[in-house]
Amino acid sequence: MDFVMDMNDDDNLFEMNSNIDSDSDDEYDNEDDFDIESDTIFREDSYHLDSDKLNNVYYIGLCNIYSFRKTILYVNSVSQPTFYKHSYCNLLRYLKNYSIFRCIHPKIDIMKLHILRNGTYTVIVKTHWLRLVQRRWKNIYKKRMDIIRKRCLPSSQMHAQRTGKYPFGLNILPSISGMMSEFSLVKSQ
Fold this sequence. Notes:
- It is a single chain.
- This protein is an alpha+beta fold.
- The chain folds into two domains: about 30-125, no CATH class; about 130-165.
- It has helices spanning about 25-50, 80-85, 90-95, 125-150, 155-165, and strands at about 1-5, 15, 60-65, 70-80, 110-115, 120-125.
- The strands form two sheets. The protein has a four-stranded antiparallel β-sheet with strand order 4-3-5-6.
- Strand 3 (about 60-65) and strand 4 form a beta hairpin.
- The longest helix is centred in the N-terminal third of the chain and has 26 residues, at about 25-50.
- The protein is elongated, with a radius of gyration of 29 Å.
- The protein starts with a strand and ends in a 26-residue tail after the last helix.
- The relative contact order is 0.09.
- Residues about 1-30 have low confidence and may be disordered.
C-alpha cells in the first residue's frame, strides 16, 4: 500500500511504502500482548493492589533487598486467584511494571509482611525457607530409606531378634522433628 503526502506548497510529493523493512512487527505485537496482559491483570487485581496490606499476612509478589539497610522491602503483590489464573512471565512483568521500586533480579516469592513502626513494609521471604526445608527433608528421607534398606538385611534382622535392637547406626531413624536444628537464626559463639 502506498501513501502520498503533499509537503509544503511545492509540488514535491513524497511516497511512503509500507513494505519497507523496519523493526519487526512481531516484536511490537509481543510487547503489545504483554502490555494488554499486564492491563488485564491490573483490572482484575486492582482491588488487591489498592487495598491496605496487613501485618503478619502472607503475600505473593516481589520484594527487594536493600543491603545498606539490611532489610528486605515489600515491592508489590498479586492476589492468590490472580496468581493461579495467569502465567509466571505475565505476572512478573505486571509486578515489575506496577511497582514503585526497580528490582534488579525480580522473582516472585511468598512473603510474610512485617510493617515497622515507621510504616516501612519489610518482608520475610518464605520461599527461601521452604527451599531449605525441602532440601533438608530430601537428605533426611534419603538417609531414612538407606537405614530401612539396611534394616531389611538378614544380619540386621538376626541382630534385632537376638538383642531387641537394630545394630549401631541403624537403631535411630531420622525424622522431621529437629531436622532444621543446624539452621539457627542467632549464631552462638
